[in-house]
Amino acid sequence: MAKKYRPLSPKEIKTLESQGCECNDWTQVTVAENFNPQRISDTRFSGTVTLGAFDKEVSFFGGITKRTGIYNATIHNCSIGDNVYINKISNHIANYDIENDVILENIDILAVNGKSSFGNGTKAAVLIESGGREIPIYDFLSAQIAYIAAVYRHRSAVIEKLNALIDAYTKSVTANRGHVAKKARIINCRIIKNCKIGPYACLEGINKLDNGTINSCREHPVYIGTGVIASGFIVASGATITDGTILSKCFVGQGCILSKQYSAENSVFFANCDGYHGEAWSIFAGPYTVTFHKGTLLISNLVSFINAGSGSNQSNHMYKLGPVHQGVIERGSKTTSDSYVLWPARVGPFTLIMGRHYRNSDTSDLPYSYLIEHEDESILVPGVNLRSVGTIRDARKWPTRDRRKDSNKLDLINFNLLSPYTIQRMINGCSILRHLEKTSGPTSDYYSYNGVRIRQHSLKKGIEYYEMGIIKFLGNTLLNRLKNRKFATIDDVRKKLAPSVSMGTGTWVDLAGMFAPEEVVHQLLDDIENSSLVSLQEIHDRLKTIHVNYQKYGWTWAADKIRERIGKPVEKITAKDIIRLTRQWKNAVVKLDKMLIEDAKKEFSISAQIGFGLDGNKKEMEKDFEAVRGKFEENSFVKEIEHHITKKSMLGDSIIEKMKSLKP
């Protein structure tokens, strides 16, 4: 029910004027029934204005309370809700609808001038500075829809339909009035033009916001702090932007933190990204993109789950046709201090990049590797990151560091370290390495592949690591279908192992954090193209359904790979097949876990103790190290791995015993 407003009474007008208020036409000002004129002073009104009731006090930092009302302001064409506190507006507030319990204090200007889409429809030129992969940002942009918009440009009809839907949404929110939602606080800010502010948002000390939307919510408010300058932007719930950050044509996703003079242009950041000190230009930053250091530049790049070390840098052109090249560093990778990569290049998942790389390499089918500079050459060590305790630690920490509290989570994220997406790369990697060994000869010192060199020893170990990873994943998926279940016959087992969906056997893709079979994604694109999906929400809902069905699609893929290994479909699998696969799985899991323990030991070596016990001898150095870092045997992560070995060994043994006890 719409709230009723009434004209001011002559007595109320007289009271307002006695308190320093003025208006050319008081008949244009209407008020709530229980309006109190005592709560307004030194304020000029113009245009059409509605005022709520002011009868409460509001609290400020430090325990200060102030009476709601309007003081020392100029208000033009505004509706102002109940118990709003407005004070010290240097210029004016114009063309805004301000909801209940909002605080606006010490602001230069808060105004909308003409029609505005509040950042919606702004095109962020990601990946290629000169354009070609622009993403039109909007309020509810997800990493997956952004990925489709940027990557599937060859599906021109899809892009046309998607852009039309975003354009329609943009037109639906375009208005000549701004909005400040309930419980928002805007304090000590300078210029805010053509912006929409969501509920419970807190804005403090901002320099300038222009043409943007802050999609805050009660569950997870947005905070924008001191010195921020932003134009053409959308900020999702739970984001924090502060300490002199500068943004232009950017989308900032849920739970992101950009701070400490971070600078970004034509870039999109999705869930839980962290940007401090450095710079981003034309970046597609998928979930958990992290950069903490000064001098770190991410440019013309698609990344996710990445940690960019200090001084990391890339080049996006070779000084011919300008900045037309792009790079892809796939999920889970890291760049060390002072690393450099020349675009175009593509780096496989979970790769450590160390040193400077000037060749246009593609290692996408050789994941979990080290890419190291040696004597101006790019040396690849395939698969070695599978034995790295840091890789396992990263994979386990990401879910625990999900800062999103909004019940409507926009980005669909799969945290699995091993998946059909990465295991297919390992399978491809084994084929590549075996082919290199066969064609170049087993006695070659180095093997060349796609702009990198691989040492003979590294090639052989890479095949070994990949095989262990493949067996571990296939065993994981198989045993997860069988554990905690009772089977009387092998037919009971076969029924449980039969895939419930047919799709999933082919290539898989990583849609900026979400794994999916390529054929399912193509079906989605077809439905966008033929207008079976006619809204952005329907597209998001379909993506969510695909995400929810990951396990079903994943088992279909794994069952097909098991078929290739045992020479028969899982519907005809035998108890002996399962026992053999389980033993292989148990051996791979235990071997990889022991490698992780050996890798962790390096953190407790004598060299790791350098700098401890500064004023003592070797014995005191060891004691100081132990006091600060603890004992290796008592380290929580080491204990967790040891427990994992025991737990998985017991699971394997129990499955083997179940298979032995089956009736024919």
Features:
single chain; 664 residues; alpha/beta; UDP N-Acetylglucosamine Acyltransferase, domain 1; 31-stranded mixed beta sheet; three-stranded parallel beta sheet; 13 helices; 42 strands
SSE layout and pairings?
Elements: E1 5-7, H1 10-18, E2 22-23, E3 29-32, E4 40-46, E5 49-51, E6 57-60, E7 64-67, E8 69-76, E9 79-80, E10 85-94, E11 96-98, E12 103-111, E13 123-125, E14 134-136, H2 143-151, H3 156-173, E15 178-180, E16 185-197, E17 202-204, E18 208-214, E19 223-224, E20 229-235, E21 240-241, E22 246-252, E23 257-259, E24 263-269, E25 274-276, E26 279-285, E27 290-291, E28 297-303, E29 307-308, E30 313-315, E31 327-329, E32 334-335, E33 340-342, E34 345-347, E35 352-354, E36 356-357, E37 370-374, E38 377-381, H4 389-400, H5 420-440, E39 446-449, E40 452-455, H6 456-482, H7 490-497, E41 508-511, E42 514-517, H8 518-529, H9 536-548, H10 550-566, H11 575-601, H12 618-629, H13 636-660
Parallel strand pairs: 2-4, 3-5, 4-8, 5-9, 8-10, 9-11, 10-12, 11-15, 12-16, 15-16, 16-17, 16-18, 17-19, 18-20, 19-21, 20-22, 21-23, 22-24, 23-25, 24-26, 25-27, 26-28, 27-29, 28-31, 29-32, 30-33, 31-34, 32-35, 33-36, 35-37
Antiparallel strand pairs: 1-3, 6-7, 13-14, 37-38, 39-40, 41-42
Helix pairs in contact: 3-8, 5-6, 6-10, 6-11, 11-13
